[in-house]
Amino acid sequence: xxxxxxxxxxxxxxxxxxxxGSGLSPKAPGTAGTLAAIPILYLMSLLTNIQYLIVLFIIIxxxxxxxxxxxxxxxxxxxxxxxxxxxxxxxxxxxxxxxSWVTILAxxxxxxxxxxxxxxxxxxxxxxxxxxxxxxxxxxxxxxFALAILQLLLKFELLPM
Length: 161
Description:
Blueprint: H1 12-17, H2 29-44, H3 49-74, H4 84-93, H5 101-117, H6 122-128, H7 131-155
Helix pairs in contact: 2-4, 3-4, 3-7, 4-5, 4-7, 5-7, 6-7
């Protein structure tokens, strides 16, 4: 990230887009951002499923705007330190999942695998959609893929609870 512009983390847009500073990690900022989302995930797990989905919808819509603004301010599309999309992707992964250290670990690993490997159509979305929507969309789809696998693991009782 040394050749990329460094955000002013005191600016609220960058502070949020960079996951409260977690996206400034010199190694694996996406993973650091996903880890930083876990305390918020714990709080969101206290909500009913409907409340969770409403909050998630707000996070996604706000995230599209937030990532777009941060990206424009830096002059870099999808700066690797922008990790609000990782927050949203993890939250998608954990929709209607009973929260425990096992499910969080499984959701974290599955989401990071899909986000890093970017199988089709995630890779296509990552290349073809620009702006805030493009920054968010590939992570949201990675979250959907991870959610599907996680739900199957839970349905067939392949995760210890």
